[in-house]
Write a structure and sequence with these properties.
about 475 residues; 3-stranded mixed beta sheet; alpha/beta; globular
Length: about 475
């Protein structure tokens, strides 16, 4: 078994005066609009090339109703099936609801997994099950185990210096609430891009200094910082300054390499392409995701949240939050368009063998419709006190979709019962979900252990195997 260990994780905080000195040494660098870069975690220093596999995970925080999207139950009673008609897809025998006409038209380019199941009913525990494999059903304030994205970033970092100037792991408005690097440390978190990529003045901070005078000035400041740090290096028993040097190198690369600026620049896409993804936050997020993996980013996460979801900015369609069916209609056009454009692009641009696209949330929604009074008016929610329908948390059965990755597409895996209450065929658990992603990234999750804070070798996946139908 490989027992991988990051020596930086042994480090315990030193005296405050030592940290203060280090901050003084870094002050010149930080003052140049880079306060985020030394703590913004950086990148994997792993080697990369044009053929290295990559994953784009599109996350739907709050959980999407499987019955109202990918697993309709038109013959269930009215208290279950919802109001949406079913429509045929390009795959014989596979139906979606009318909310997803664009995805239905390209269903031959992805596979639907209809039999996901996990054991936690709360958002924190459910997210941690799906993203890190934590089997604990209790909601915790922060993750005990690192998420798969940080683990992949860490493992690929063991391969030596990274040749691509872009970070290996980028989050475009990434999921941030119930996931993180845990005992791996913040250096394996994503380079995070926040904001609305559809905004006319959208820019990514700390990317690409165009003015050569500024670049030279930055070089001088960085050299000064290094000279100051050399005074203290003899006392740096834990190698912390070496770690910070890696972060600074990444920061400098992001600022000075023209490839980085171009990769994040959506204005280089033609108007037709931008229109095809949708001129809204989600569409441009996923277009930016495609640009970045095409340029060499290996792990890309993007969370579909915010005003496009409705009043409460997520997919948590309790009746107290949203009129569930109004909410699904409200967000469906932007969701359907953005996801279908991303999948089409992956194939049209020849990325389908290298790049795996996974679209999921932490669980589904209750098959049986509930009714409760709204807690407030807004998009997809009636005025406070109005009785409206909702669906609650449901981890026993839900769907996600998979595209690219060299997998066989145009089919569905597994099944739920006649009401969509339970997965009954080809049941897949979070460990299987994670092992499948790791397999695409060239990681044998059954053999890899990483030492936790206490030095215990901890498996990156417990009780899971790659899903055979989703292996390219």
């Amino acid at each position: 078994m490989d027992q991988l260990f990051n020596p930086l994780n042994q480090y315990c905080s030193g005296p405050g005066t030592r940290r203060g000195f280090m901050k003084m040494g870094l002050a010149g660098f930080a003052s140049l609009s880079l306060p985020g870069m030394l703590r913004l975690r950086a990148e994997s220093p792993a080697a990369t090339d044009a053929k290295k596999t990559a994953v784009i995970m599109v996350w739907k925080p709050g959980g999407c109703s499987h019955i109202d999207t990918y697993d309709p139950k038109p013959n269930a009673g009215s208290e279950y099936r919802g109001p949406f008609a079913t429509i045929p897809t390009k795959v014989p025998g596979m139906q979606f609801t009318e909310l997803l006409p664009m995805q239905a038209a390209i269903a031959d380019k992805f596979t639907v997994l209809r039999s996901m199941r996990q054991g936690a009913g709360g958002h924190p525990a459910g997210s941690m099950q799906m993203l890190s494999g934590d089997s604990d059903t209790r909601d915790k304030p922060k993750p005990k185990y690192p998420d798969w994205m940080s683990v992949a970033n860490y493992l690929r970092a063991q391969g030596g210096p990274r040749t691509n100037p872009l970070p290996a792991y980028v989050g475009v408005n990434p999921p941030t609430t119930y996931n993180g690097p845990a005992y791996l440390g913040d250096s394996y978190s994503p380079f995070s891009v926040k904001g609305d990529p559809n905004a006319p003045k959208f820019v990514v901070p700390n990317i690409g200094l165009a003015n050569q005078a500024e670049v030279k000035h930055l070089d001088r400041r960085s050299s000064l910082r290094q000279n100051l740090d050399n005074l203290e290096r003899a006392f740096d028993q834990a190698g912390e300054l070496d770690a910070l040097d890696e972060f600074e190198t990444q920061a400098m690369t992001l600022l000075t390499n023209p490839k980085t600026k171009d990769a994040f620049d959506l204005s280089l896409e033609d108007d037709k392409t931008r229109d095809r993804y949708g001129r809204n936050t989600w569409g441009q997020q996923l277009l930016l995701a495609r640009r970045l993996v095409e340029a060499g980013v290996e792990v890309l996460t993007s969370s579909l949240r915010g005003p496009l979801c409705g009043r409460v900015n997520n997919w948590d369609d309790h009746a107290v939050n949203h009129h569930v069916f109004d909410a699904l209609k409200f967000r469906s056009q932007a969701y359907d368009q953005a996801v279908s454009a991303l999948i089409e692009d992956i194939y049209e641009r020849g990325l389908d063998a290298r790049v795996l696209v996974v679209v999921t949330g932490e669980f589904g929604r209750t098959p049986k419709i509930s009714h409760q009074p709204s807690t407030g008016a807004g998009n997809a929610s009636a005025p406070a006190g109005t009785q409206q329908p909702g669906r609650d948390h449901w981890p026993r059965a839900f769907s996600n979709i998979w595209a690219g990755g060299g997998i066989e597409t145009g089919r569905f895996i597994g099944a739920t019962d006649k009401r969509g209450e339970d997965s009954i065929e080809r049941i897949c658990m979070p460990g299987d979900f994670l092992a499948t992603i790791y397999h695409h990234l060239g990681i044998d999750s059954s053999q890899v252990f990483i030492k936790d804070f206490n030095g215990r070798p901890t498996p990156i996946v417990n009780h899971g195997k790659p899903i055979p139908e989703l292996i390219g």
